[in-house]
Amino acid sequence: MWDSIWINVLLPDGRDNPGAIGVQDGKIAWVGPQASLTAAPETLAKTIYNGANRWVTPGLVDCHTHLVYGGNRAREFEMRLQGVSYEDIAKAGGGILSTMSATRAATEDELFASSYRRLQNLMAEGVTGIEIKSGYGLDMETERKMLVVATKLAQATGIRIQRTFLGAHALPPEYKNRSDDYITHICEDMLPALHEAGLVDAVDVFCERIGFTLAQAERVFQKAQQLGLPVKIHAEQLSNQHGSALAARSRALSADHLEYLDEDGVKAMAASGTIAVLLPGAYYFLRETRLPPIDLLRKHSVPIAIATDHNPGTSPVHSLLLMMNMACTIFHLTPQESLAGVTCHAAAALGWNDSGKLEQGARADFALWDIGELAELSYSIGHNACYAVVRNGLYVAIPQSRSD
């Protein structure tokens, strides 16, 4: 007998509706047309939930965030409005380094409290999985502190969290003009120690003119792979440094941002299976004018994921649903592409082969929505239609605030 069954739900993939989903031991035991059930629901499961003809989707996955940090960068926002570029702010000691100082100064409890509030916003929108990067410590103590907070967030909420080590996010002041030495410190000291402590699930690098070079990124990738850790990259956001091609050669899970990605990079990603993660919040917030090459990604069948890139400097976004709308309105994705971008493709960008889909054997992470059609998830702005979520098989009601 299953633990639970959801009946009278609308399934998104063209099955005859209403549908049903059986759940056992945190996994989907059965999914399909309700008329195809072999017996009455009460004989199949201990608990029956009536979806009342609500749409159900896989739980949303936010596959690129920097959710744990101290302080904010509202002053830099004002500076950019006055015409100062992101690169100039970073070169003057602002940007990532200003958040580094605030994060180093914050206690673990303070970081947990602020990050928990941010995570609650996303969870209320049907997010059942999220990536959280380090990278605002840039020293052993603070990077460890950030990853510990990410671990505690998973324990406190029950949400699935991938902890990504982003020590190669910026050059800390202790290593001014010694970027190669800092990469050596990452590869020989920081990453091995944090991995041994069980705090790292994946490794990322910011490969950019104001970040790290292709050769430096490759050194970090090689060390990560020696430790058996998957890799991903911030690439082609401000210029084309060919980081996406490196990601492809390294069999990276994803390459993220990609406004300056060229066709050779797209072809390399297609051949390697590397996911393209697009971040419309950062594009919008930085007033970027060069769109990611959406048509080339489609042409070469590179899967496209969408994420918030939540961070204090370039994407202070608390809504993945808003990113779905912006992916359609700014990047010209279809609502169907947008939904895939925050479910199956987002899960693939984290290496989660058992998430982001409604299939037998997948994790029982799904969301129910008070909507008339699935396109409403990308269409509405500022309205959260999430009725409830099931996380790892457990039903969680969403507090309702309706303004219909």
TrEMBL record:
Cofactor dependency: Zn(2+); Fe(3+)
UniProt keyword terms in alphabetical order: Cytoplasm, Histidine metabolism, Hydrolase, Iron, Metal-binding, Zinc
Residues noted as binding Zn(2+) in the record, renumbered to the chain: H64, H66, H234, D309
Chain sites annotated for binding 4-imidazolone-5-propanoate: R73, Y136, H169, Q237, T314
First and last residue of the signal peptide: none
Cofactor note: Binds 1 zinc or iron ion per subunit.
Domain Amidohydrolase-related residues, every copy: 55-393
GO molecular function: imidazolonepropionase activity; iron ion binding; zinc ion binding
Enzyme class: hydrolase
InterPro entries linked to this entry: Amidohydro-rel, HutI, Metal-dep_hydrolase_composite, Metal_Hydrolase
Annotated N-formimidoyl-L-glutamate binding sites: Y136, N311, G313
SUPFAM superfamilies: Composite domain of metallo-dependent hydrolases, Metallo-dependent hydrolases
Positions annotated to bind Fe(3+): H64, H66, H234, D309
UniProt-annotated location(s): Cytoplasm
Matches recorded under Pfam families: Amidohydro_1
UniProt protein name: Imidazolonepropionase
Purpose of the protein: Catalyzes the hydrolytic cleavage of the carbon-nitrogen bond in imidazolone-5-propanoate to yield N-formimidoyl-L-glutamate. It is the third step in the universal histidine degradation pathway.
Catalytic reaction equation(s): 4-imidazolone-5-propanoate + H2O = N-formimidoyl-L-glutamate
Single GO biological process annotation from the record: L-histidine catabolic process to glutamate and formamide
Enzyme Commission number, as recorded: 3.5.2.7
Keyword Zinc: yes
Listed GO CC annotations: cytoplasm
Pathway: Amino-acid degradation; L-histidine degradation into L-glutamate; N-formimidoyl-L-glutamate from L-histidine: step 3/3
Primary location group: cytoplasm
